[in-house]
């Protein structure tokens, strides 16, 4: 179970974290629990524009911090979000591909994934997981999740939510008084015989200039499911690295320059294809803030992300031509490539001032991002799913938050525009989206000073992607049918209503314990929802679907179309109780959703994940150097999903800080060896079962001076 942290925005340095509800402190690097019940809920997130903690935020926000990352011993991005309500990862057997699902929405930019300010927009359309990004959990400092389209300062399209991943800095690694430091980590996973080796080094040249580097190597074989059967295609190896520097030109300003890269390889199609992906992200983030100039809190971010995927045919493969539909053979050694370049720029400023008894925080800015997609392949290749072209999205926003005693109000407007161009056609559009949030906390007189109730109405706008708009050609595998482009697609517009409660209380049973709780009900209606539709070749001739009999031909066409509406409803709760002896947590995520066609026909959404209830309990011993505990998670199958079943997972975890410089971690995942599948994998051609029981062991040695 994950603790909560503050809401969206770009890079702003956090306060020194007070870690409670986590693993044992690591000497000077981590702070011990303090009286007054401060928890990770009280930390200021590094991505908060307004400098608030999660418990103060009138939004559904969670954080996975360094303590949770270490405890989960995450091997893939999927492992990061265990127990976080409202967010699920779709990863089929290829564990290096990850689609992030927030509140039942995923793919085609519905969820914005941002690494150090750089959007991760690579997508390869097809069966199974479509969005593909890799960021090794070893490189992460923390991950923030914002659910729903309330984060209008993040950029266009995120009608489901936003995931902000921030990598480590030298300041996070070096202890007080150290100019240099290093660490090495070795880890072994019994399921798949997975080995992980990680090395980190940092150097502080002056108080105003430091640098940190990290390299990670993962080598995993095919894992076994709960039945003891190997899952084909689940082996992978990844080499990841990071280099990051922080420069402080003045007392009030900071510049962060970074590079994150990965080289992944795996096999697909029953070992018929060898896959390799190279990802490189370059970022520059500048912030200037002057306490004496309350109008100035400026953030400028520039980024360039490039992902190159190569699919190599290892054997001769029989297919159909995507042009003629006739049988052909693709010879071994042939290549299909997918290359995506994403430059982006973001600029914002927050001005703070008072008018009488009312405090104001006025945030304003703009952003621009472009995707340049180039796909190539031999005749009959899968590149037709992911057409070449250019997509540009940009926007500007203004947000005002005012506070008066027990009343808080946030109002915002965002303008978005987009443009798609390719050899097949082009499309464009724009819109203004509003947000209004009102929160009240006048409960001190009834003995509940830490209780806040809020309500939100927010709209979001997602432009169609290149694949949805411009896909064309003939399906090359199994059967032959046409893909029809649809340049007349209308952008999706999300209308979300959310009612939430924040509650914080200290000294419940003893002086140094605390309770933090966030809960919310949401209703998200997406107008003109875009989904795939099958069109009969014998339907209305104006549908442009024609049937030409031949080998493997099927009498239908496939096209992305607008549905009248998608309706998603849900409830989320996240809470943690912390005391000197240990911690306990409860997270709940209940969700349901369906589409309604223009003819009024209802159909279950295949992107609705399992509803979940996750409990966590941990104990501290030996002056907090030893932490042991466990997690139990019940997963309820979503309605209408043919492959989904109810299942329960039980995990155990432990950590031991043997010395100030030596730490051991252990974890058992799926203790009961359950055989289960992720409901989001219903779109794959075969049912893919998740790993069975797995024991993870790790040791980290640190040094410095």
TrEMBL record:
InterPro entries: Beta-barrel_TonB, Beta-barrel_TonB_sf, Plug_dom, Plug_dom_sf, TonB-dep_rcpt-like, TonB_haem/Hb_rcpt, TonB_Hb/transfer/lactofer_rcpt. It is a multi-pass membrane protein. Signal peptide: none annotated. Keywords: Cell outer membrane, Membrane, Receptor, Signal, TonB box, Transmembrane, Transmembrane beta strand, Transport. It is found in: Cell outer membrane. Pfam families: Plug, TonB_dep_Rec_b-barrel. Residues 56-162 form the TonB-dependent receptor plug domain. Residues 223-671 form the TonB-dependent receptor-like beta-barrel domain. Belongs to the TonB-dependent receptor family. This is TonB-dependent hemoglobin/transferrin/lactoferrin family receptor. It comes from Mesorhizobium marinum.
């Amino acid at each position: 179970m994950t603790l909560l942290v503050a809401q969206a925005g770009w890079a702003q340095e956090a306060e020194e974290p007070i870690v409670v509800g986590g693993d044992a402190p690591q000497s000077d690097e981590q702070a011990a629990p303090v009286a007054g019940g401060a928890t990770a809920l009280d930390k200021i997130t590094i991505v908060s524009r307004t400098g608030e903690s999660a418990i103060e935020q009138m939004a559904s926000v969670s954080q996975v911090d360094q303590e949770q990352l270490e405890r989960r011993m995450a091997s893939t991005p999927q492992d990061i979000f265990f127990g976080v309500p409202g967010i699920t990862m779709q990863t089929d057997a290829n564990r290096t591909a990850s689609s992030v699902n927030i509140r039942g929405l995923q793919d085609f930019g519905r969820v914005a994934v941002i690494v150090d300010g750089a959007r991760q927009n690579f997508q390869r359309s097809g069966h199974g997981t479509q969005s593909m990004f890799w960021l090794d959990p070893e490189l992460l400092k923390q991950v923030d999740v914002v659910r729903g389209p309330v984060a209008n300062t993040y950029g266009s399209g995120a009608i489901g939510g936003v995931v902000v991943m921030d990598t480590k800095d030298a300041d996070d690694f070096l202890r007080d008084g150290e100019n240099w430091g290093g660490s090495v980590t070795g880890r072994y996973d019994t399921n798949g015989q997975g080995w992980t080796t990680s090395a980190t080094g940092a150097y502080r040249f002056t108080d105003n200039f430091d640098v940190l580097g990290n390299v990670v190597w993962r080598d995993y074989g095919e894992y076994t499911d709960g039945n003891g059967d190997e899952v084909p295609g689940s082996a992978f190896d990844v080499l990841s690295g990071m280099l990051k520097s922080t420069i402080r030109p003045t007392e009030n300003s900071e510049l962060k320059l970074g590079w994150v890269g990965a080289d992944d390889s795996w096999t697909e199609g029953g070992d018929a294809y060898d896959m390799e992906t190279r990802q490189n992200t370059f970022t520059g983030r500048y912030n200037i803030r002057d306490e004496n100039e309350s109008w100035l809190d400026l953030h400028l971010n520039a980024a360039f992300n490039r992902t190159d995927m190569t699919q190599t045919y290892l054997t001769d493969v029989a297919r159909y031509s995507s042009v003629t539909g006739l049988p052909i053979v693709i010879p071994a050694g042939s290549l299909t490539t997918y290359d995506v370049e994403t430059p982006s720029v973001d600029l914002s400023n927050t001005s703070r001032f008072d008018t009488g008894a009312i405090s104001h925080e006025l945030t304003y800015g703009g952003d621009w991002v472009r995707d340049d997609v180039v796909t190539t392949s031999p005749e009959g290749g899968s590149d037709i799913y992911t057409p070449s072209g250019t997509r540009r999205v940009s926007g500007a926003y203004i947000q005002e938050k005012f506070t008066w005693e027990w009343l808080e109000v946030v109002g915002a407007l965002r303008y978005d525009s987009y443009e798609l161009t390719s050899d097949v056609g082009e499309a464009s559009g724009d819109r203004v989206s509003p947000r209004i949030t009102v929160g009240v906390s006048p409960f001190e007189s009834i003995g509940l000073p830490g209780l806040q109730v809020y309500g939100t109405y927010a709209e979001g706008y997602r432009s169609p992607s290149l694949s949805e708009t411009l896909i064309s050609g003939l399906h090359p595998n199994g059967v032959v049918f046409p893909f029809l482009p649809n340049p007349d697609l209308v952008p999706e517009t999300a209308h979300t209503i959310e009612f939430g409660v924040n509650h914080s209380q200290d000294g419940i049973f003893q002086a140094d314990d605390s309770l933090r709780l966030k809960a919310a009900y949401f209703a998200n209606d997406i107008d003109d929802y875009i989904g795939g539709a099958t069109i009969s070749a014998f339907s209305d001739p104006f549908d442009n679907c024609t049937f030409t009999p031949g080998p493997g031909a099927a009498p239908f066409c496939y096209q992305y179309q607008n549905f009248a509406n998608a309706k998603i409803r849900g409830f989320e709760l996240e809470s943690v109780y912390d005391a000197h002896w240990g911690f306990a947590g409860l997270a709940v995520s209940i969700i349901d959703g369906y589409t309604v066609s223009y003819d009024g026909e209802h159909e279950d959404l295949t992107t609705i994940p399992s509803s979940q209830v996750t409990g966590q309990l941990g104990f501290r011993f030996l002056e907090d150097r030893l932490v042991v505990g466990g997690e139990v998670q019940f997963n309820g199958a979503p309605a209408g999903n043919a492959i989904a079943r109810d299942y329960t997972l039980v995990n155990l975890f432990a950590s031991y800080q043997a010395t100030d410089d030596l730490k051991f971690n252990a974890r058992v995942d799926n203790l009961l060896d359950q055989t289960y599948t992720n409901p989001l994998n219903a779109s794959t051609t075969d049912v893919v079962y998740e790993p069975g029981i797995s024991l993870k062991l790790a040791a980290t040695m640190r040094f410095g001076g």
